[in-house]
Design brief:
Number of strands: 25
Radius of gyration: 24 Å
CATH architecture of one domain: 3-Layer(aba) Sandwich
Largest sheet: 13 strands, mixed
Shape: globular
Structural class: alpha/beta
CATH superfamily of one domain: ANL, N-terminal domain
CATH class of one domain: Alpha Beta
Strand order of the largest sheet: 2-1-11-10-12-13-14-15-16-20-19-18-17
Distance between the termini: 55 Å
Length: 550
């Protein structure tokens, strides 16, 4: 616990709490006519303004109160990126309840577990997920009402879901007259469960204070760099770490907001980029891979798209190169975690870097980036001794700050901090200028003869080969070295590459002993609910793989 010293002289500033409701109030008051555009589940395009969003958020807040939702109660959502989900973001947290976003890509049993663990009182969900909700609804012990986010004419004639209500009817039946309540800024605001821990998912419970501070920091120029001159399309889902905070930082700045709904394929995203003149977007590498392939196959260009933030997993250098050199799109390589709200670092250049060669600048930008203000980080060895920032020494990455968790919801897993620092589970280097680079997850690093081999470098080199679509590297048993690298490769449609040619591609790029011992060509890599490659599945699939003998 941090010990504070009481000053004999306190400041004389207004005591106004940092609350999420203030963001949508600001957007209404100062950017009221700016647009929010959504591709709906129904397939059409919906348009309205921040003023409309604020009004309907207050109507929804009144509706939830009518359903018995009180301050501190959790309200679940299972929905795509869209205007109704945004209304829920502000209605739930703004009224003092807790927004609990649930990943619909999880197994129904996991969703039921999470809803029960959170003790959700109401659940709002999109039409897409009606069949899934019918499966797990009866197992949700605390939910008093389910709300289908649609118009009356889309409501099912028959359903197994108990107390199913229509979202638009609730909105229409409730007044927009509401004074957002004032309360302690440290009150819980939203709850996100992470699958990055062992065992059942654990909840990261954010506060209003942590969320507003994160929103300020993430909008800064050397962070996500959001302004009122932008048109922002969050590809990262609103059910995944609150879409990296964009549903807060974008209204905070008054930027035009565009939601893609359920259509996340390259064609749909490209069409929305062009029709709405999107300037900035954010998402995980797997989504951008689909967009770049679509653009390449159809010989297309971007007319307005200028900047993207890529995170969730390491951005392959080949992807960054394609965006920057072929399309003139700036790539900000970012890093964070659910436990960090999530933003921790962003990869941008400093003045002293501008005179460097393009190759040298690229080497900096390929790192996960510089800590943004509010995040402190360090690397330590297994004995928790701090290691030097020389860009070469790698160790376990620890972080601390006002939007980083100190414990999981309901204290699951006990005390997770190490001397006041949160252990991220990542292995990283930090250079003398403070730029951090993830070399691996601690659970994924390959231990060969007592030495560590980082899999990310091996994957990035493979993906730079023109025939390779995706690559993943895992460690498999070796009788002499304990583990050696096995490279798993998905080849682009119509392309060909031999094992020998791909192994030769590594020559001169890494230490020779890092070179994979074998390559297996597969049809597809297993992708998890958050768009990351499931290496645990690959390790299980290839646990009996026999490496070739020298």
């Amino acid at each position: 616990m941090v010990q504070y010293t009481q000053s004999p002289l306190m400041g004389q500033m207004m005591d106004q709490p940092l609350l999420i409701s203030s963001i949508i109030q600001h957007a209404d008051r100062y950017f009221g006519q700016n647009e929010i555009v959504s591709r709906r589940v129904e397939g059409d395009i919906h348009r309205y303004t921040y003023r409309d969003c604020h009004k309907r958020s207050k109507q929804l807040a009144n509706a939830l109160a009518g359903l018995g939702v009180k301050m501190g109660d959790r309200v679940g959502t299972i929905a795509w990126n869209g205007y109704r989900h945004l209304e829920a973001y502000y209605a739930i947290s703004g009224s003092g309840a807790v927004l609990h976003t649930i990943n619909p890509r999880l197994h129904p049993d996991q969703i039921a577990y999470i809803a029960n663990h959170a003790e959700d009182q109401v659940m709002l969900f999109d039409l897409t997920f009606l069949p899934a909700v019918e499966i797990f609804a009866e197992h949700c012990k605390t939910i008093k009402a389910f709300v289908l986010m649609c118009d009356r004419d889309r409501m099912p004639a028959e359903t197994k879901i108990p107390n199913l209500l229509c979202y638009e009817e609730l909105i229409a039946a409730n007044s927009s007259e509401l004074d957002w309540p004032l309360f302690d800024e440290n009150s819980a605001s939203s709850l996100c469960y992470t699958s990055g821990t062992t065992g059942n998912p654990k909840g990261a419970l954010y506060s209003h204070r942590s969320t507003v501070l994160h929103s300020y920091a993430s909008a800064m120029p050397d962070s996500l760099n959001v302004s009122a001159r932008d048109t922002v399309l969050p590809v990262v889902p609103m059910f995944h770490v609150n879409a990296w905070g964009l549903p807060y930082s974008v209204p905070l700045t008054g930027a035009k907001l565009v939601f893609p709904g359920p259509a996340m394929d390259g064609k749909s995203i490209y069409e929305l980029f062009e029709s709405e003149q999107v300037t900035f977007s954010a998402g995980v590498p797997t989504v951008w891979l689909g967009l770049l392939n679509y653009v390449a196959q159809h010989n297309l260009k971007f007319s307005s798209f200028k900047r993207t933030v890529i995170g969730g997993s390491a951005c392959p250098p080949a992807m960054m190169k394609a965006f920057r050199q072929q399309h003139g799109v700036e790539v900000v390589h970012a890093w964070g975690m659910t436990e960090m709200s999530p933003l921790g670092t962003a990869g941008t250049l400093q003045t002293k870097h501008l005179a460097l060669s393009d190759e040298a600048q690229t080497a900096i930008l390929e790192k996960q980036g510089h800590a943004i203000f509010g995040v402190d980080m360090k690397i330590v060895d297994d004995a928790n001794k701090e290691l030097p920032w020389d860009g070469k020494t790698y160790g376990n990455l620890l972080v601390r700050g006002p939007w980083i968790i100190k414990s999981y919801f309901k204290n699951e897993g006990g005390d997770v901090l190490v001397d006041g620092w949160f252990p991220t589970g990542d292995v990283a280097t930090i250079d003398p200028d403070g730029y951090m680079q993830i070399t691996d997850r601690s659970k994924d690093v390959i231990k060969s003869g007592g030495e560590w081999i980082g899999t990310i470098d091996l994957e990035n080199i493979a993906m730079a080969h023109p025939a390779v679509l995706q690559a993943a590297c895992i460690g498999v048993f070796h009788p002499k070295w304990d583990e050696r690298p096995l490279l798993l490769v998905v080849v682009k449609t119509g392309a060909e590459v031999s094992k020998e040619a791909l192994l030769q591609f590594y020559e001169g790029k890494i230490a020779k002993w890092w070179t994979p011992d074998d390559i297996a060509f597969i049809d597809a890599l297993p992708i998890g609910a958050t768009g990351k490659i499931l290496k645990n599945k690959l390790r299980e699939q290839f646990k009996d793989h026999v490496l070739p003998t020298a």
